[in-house]
Amino acid sequence: MMIHSLIKEVRKKWQHHETNRLIVAIDGLSRSGKTTITKELEKELQRESISYAILHIDDFITERSKRYHTGRDQWEEYYHLQWDVEQLKEHLFKPLQEEAILSLPFYLDKEDRHEWRSVHLPPKGVIIIEGVFLQRSVWRSFLDYIVYIDCSRETRFRRESNETQTLVHKFENRYWKAEEHYLKEEQPLENAGLVIYN
């Protein structure tokens, strides 16, 4: 039912959109189901022959030296330093409506470095951005339609691997505090166009 509501809303927004591209954000906290729902949306866009592109915000995180052991609290490192917010504003979010090709810094995890790659966008279609913390005030104005995937912390934590669940202190000090900050500061549920309870 939830995916049907999403498809219906995206179709309606696309049909009445005034520009050539509809920028759709799939926002939500870690393990909330963003990737799964994005894949379902992709299938529907293919079925309806609507041109699209998908961008994952986690492809653009910073090098480890910029987000670990910086002297700041762990949650601040995760929220403020995990991504170069201003760089992504300039190279990803601002050009989304007009540019045919984006030049973006893809992060290579094993090598801990970036590789700048070209991303071709359809001249007319739906652009999906999937990831956490997408409703930061510095990015929100570039998004046409925001979907927030809401899921309890307990459920999301159970979706982690058994090995990862042993790192509960890291979640307490790094991830969960950053999530609490985001929920309080940006109020993503209140500002989303559609909330899916997953």
Instruction: Give the spatial strand order of the biggest sheet.
Output: 2-5-1-6-7
Overall geometry: globular
- Main CATH class: Alpha Beta
Average the pLDDT over all residues and give the rounded result: 94
Our Rg estimate from Cα atoms comes to 17 Å
Poorly predicted tracts of residues: none
Distance between the termini: 11 Å
Strand content: 15-25%
Query: How many H/I helical runs?
Result: 10
At the fourth CATH level, what is the homologous superfamily?
Answer: P-loop containing nucleotide triphosphate hydrolases
- CATH fold-level name: Rossmann fold
Major β-sheet annotation: 5 strands, parallel
Pfam families: AAA_18
Protein name: Uridine kinase
Enzyme class: transferase
InterPro entries: P-loop_NTPase (IPR027417)
What does this structure look like?
- This protein is an alpha/beta fold.
- It has helices at residues 2-15, 34-47, 64-67, 74-81, 85-93, 137-140, 153-158, 162-165, 168-186, 188-191, and strands spanning 21-28, 52-56, 101-108, 113-120, 125-131, 145-150, 194-197.
- Strands 2-5-1-6-7 form a five-stranded parallel beta sheet. It has a two-stranded antiparallel ribbon with strand order 3-4.
- The protein is globular and about 45 Å long.
- Its EC number is 2.7.1.48.
- One of its GO terms (molecular function) is uridine kinase activity.
